[in-house]
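Thread: sanity check for a docking pose with adenosine-5'-triphosphate

Original post by kr_44:
Hi all, I'm comparing my docking run against an independent structure prediction. Below are the sequence and the ligand SMILES. Could someone generate the full complex and paste the structure tokens? I mainly care about where the ligand ends up relative to the chain.
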Amino acid sequence: MSETDIIMQVEHIVKKFAAAGGKTLTACDDITFNIRKGETVAIVGESGCGKTTLLKSIMNMQMPTSGRILFHGRDITKLTGEAKRENYRHIQMVFQDPAAAFDPKMRIKEIVCEPLLNFGLIQRNGMEAKTRELLAQVELPAEFANRYPHNMSGGQRQRVAIARALALEPEIIACDEATSALDVSVQDTIVKLLVRLQKEKGITYIFICHDLALVSMFSHRIVVMYLGNMMEELDGDKLTEARHPYTRALLKAVFSTDQEKNQQIGILPGDIPSPLDLPTGCPFHNRCEYRQELCIKEKPVLREAVDNHFLACHYPLPIA
Ligand SMILES: Nc1ncnc2c1ncn2[C@@H]1O[C@H](COP(=O)(O)OP(=O)(O)OP(=O)(O)O)[C@@H](O)[C@H]1O
Ligand SMILES: [Mg+2]
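Reply from moderator J.T.:
Ran it for you. Here is the predicted complex with adenosine-5'-triphosphate included:
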């Protein structure tokens, strides 16, 4: 893949929120990475590390405090009115809980075709046929068109959410914990579906997930976040070459033996500092078994360690 395949550039995104007591919470602190056409970029990290906040900037749902998001070279954070609406055609989203996102009074055909109707791309009498076509793409039977979302399983509802996201033929689909609420076996079938659709249509995914083992199976790039900061960014198939102690701790937690299995990366040893009271130096230093004086004093800057492998660590671990 060459530089010309880059369709989105996330550049120095900072998002701060005012908090009680005159404090400021920095949910995203200088997040920078590129997204290439037809690839899956996974954003992983423990709860509260800023994944959804970052996605809201990418989805144009929330203005970042500073930084730019270039989509085909154009900064989309500044879009308003019709230009902002038009941008939504190209970047669609799948949420964790479609049951909450869908109107329970709407039939599947109305849910799936709503974006097309909003953009005036189909007539109401074309809904039935379009729904059948979209349901086929997500491997659901055509008769689901007239069902209501509560008459479906969680996995089927998530397929409907994907069908709805596909309706506008977007370039990018962003999934925020889209498989996290599903059983492992269902999760697997949804991932397989997403991968097939990517191969067929060249769709680009931004896949937010706290499950590093899952994303390592199909992501081309992995961005690891911690307390609003990027810790490491590397190719999905080079995860075993991760050099940041945080990424390695996540890997250890996920791929540990049955005896000490910690499926959730949220149970690493040590407490996550309050985002309102971040330590000086590296945000991970209080949990890092390799910390040295410098880590406590000085915050490491994200830099390219080797080709296309970025790290924010003063003392990266040797490749395992
Ligand atoms: N609108 C807001 N106002 C104030 N603080 C916010 C707001 N939105 C998010 N935050 C804070 O920003 C930080 C990052 O939150 P965010 O929801 O982006 O995390 P996340 O990585 O998506 O977590 P999870 O895995 O639990 O979904 C958290 O400390 C959160 O409390
Ligand atoms: Mg979130």
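The chain has ten helices and twelve strands. Hope that helps with the comparison, let us know if your pose agrees.
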